[in-house]
Amino acid sequence: MEFSSKLLERAVNEMSQLPGIGKRTALRLVLHLLRQPKEQTTALSQALQDMRNTIKFCESCHNISDFKLCEICANPNRNETIICVVEDVKDVMAIENTSSFKGLYHVLGGKISPMDGIGPHDLNIETLVNKVKQGVVKELIFALSSTMEGDTTNFYIYKQIQDYKVVTSTIARGISVGDELEYADEITLGRSIVNRIPFETSLKL
Ligand SMILES: [Zn+2]
């Protein structure tokens, strides 16, 4: 792609670093911004900088948060004895949208994947195990995608906590997961949480 301006080229190159944005789309977006009032670009870049510089992760569940504790963990009406274990922040949002779950979450930050060099210690597993050890948690719901990596991660956590008094369950796999939770429709996802099955049962399937 030949550019008539180095400034334009730089903006397009930066924009095209984003997932799903090729050079052509990046050029279209940049040209769009050029046609808009300057204030719009300022607001966009300021929002991104503020988000990147000041956003925090909840000290308890690792969800993205503006405060030390996220709104879910800080809410006294949530049931702290049930924890739904998810891969990432998108899954929290998907499950919250169902309004079917009133417990807390634990965001692992991914799943165990030896192929990608991701081991248990790269994920927020230790903090989860510590929560279980403290004895407040009565049930863990595994809501990871039903891929081999998801199953491996579930099983690893299960092994770590099986000696403690905690019930483990997994979301009913009627949903065609394999794909991610965020793509499941709200009713199906909500139902799969309500109709969760004991984790041990899922191992025999
Ligand atoms: Zn939290």
From TrEMBL:
HAMAP family: RecR. Keywords: DNA damage, DNA recombination, DNA repair, Metal-binding, Zinc, Zinc-finger. A zinc finger (C4-type) spans 58-73. Belongs to the RecR family. The keyword DNA-binding does not apply. The gene is recR. Pfam families: RecR_C, RecR_HhH, RecR_ZnF, Toprim_4. Residues 81-176 form the Toprim domain. InterPro entries: DNA_Rcmb_RecR, Rcmb_RecR, Rcmb_RecR_Znf, TOPRIM_dom, TOPRIM_RecR. The keyword DNA damage applies. This is Recombination protein RecR. May play a role in DNA repair. It seems to be involved in an RecBC-independent recombinational process of DNA repair. It may act with RecF and RecO. One of its GO terms (molecular function) is zinc ion binding. One of its GO terms (biological process) is DNA repair. NCBIfam families: recR.
